[in-house]
Amino acid sequence: MTDEQTTMIDFGPTAQRVTALLRGVTDEQLSAPTPCGAYSVADLLDHFMGLALAMRHAAEKTTAVAGPAPGQGSADRLDPDWRQELPRRLDALAVAWREPSAWLGTTEAGGVTMPAQMMGIVALDELVIHGWDLARATGQPYDCDPRSVETIIEWLAAVPDEERPKELFGPMIPVPADAPRLDRAIALSGRDPGWRA
């Protein structure tokens, strides 16, 4: 992937799709399971809260605010104002990654330093895959920006199973050759595209 291709990725459509899902989450669903390991819906929402903030700071190269490490979402920490605050954080995340400088050099999030281009793709992957997690857990439809899905597929397919961080991904799951592209991205992340609550 070239610098030009990478810097043109717009997080806006995916961030807006996740924000739309939030309106469909009921208080009764907060304790429901998700496709994301042992996370409940509330755990996942807390992870989104920290993720959006950490990845915005990664784009801005303002790493004084530490982001959460993967797997640290907790229902016990979920901000009671998440319905208002998370959409603001997702919007700020998308705005930050629209700046060409966000994709240059190196940056840090959650104690991990990597090339900014890679960090941007990691952030996009988190939005796309966890958006699907939230939709499935709460019984909502989920479609995703095709450009974002293709970027995630390209990235996930390039990393062999044995090199994938086990705390982030399960083993790749086979899907039919004619499976929808989003199903392929979900399967590459180690989730079952047919998962239902």
What can you tell me about this protein's structure?
With 197 residues, the chain is mainly alpha-helical. It has a single domain, classed as Four Helix Bundle (Hemerythrin (Met), subunit A). The protein has seven helices and two strands. It has helices spanning 3-7, 12-22, 41-60, 82-96, 116-137, 146-157, 181-188, and strands at residues 106-109, 112-115. Strands 1-2 form a two-stranded antiparallel sheet. Strand 1 and strand 2 form a beta hairpin. Helix 3 (41-60) runs parallel beside helix 4 and helix 5 crosses helix 6. The protein is globular, with a radius of gyration of 16 Å. The protein starts with a helix and ends in a 9-residue tail after the last helix. Residues 1-5 have low confidence and may be disordered. GO terms for molecular function: metal ion binding. It holds the Pfam family MDMPI_N. Residues 15-135 form the Mycothiol-dependent maleylpyruvate isomerase metal-binding domain. InterPro entries: CHP03086 (IPR017520), DinB/YfiT-like (IPR034660), Maleyloyr_isom (IPR017517), MDMPI_metal-binding (IPR024344).
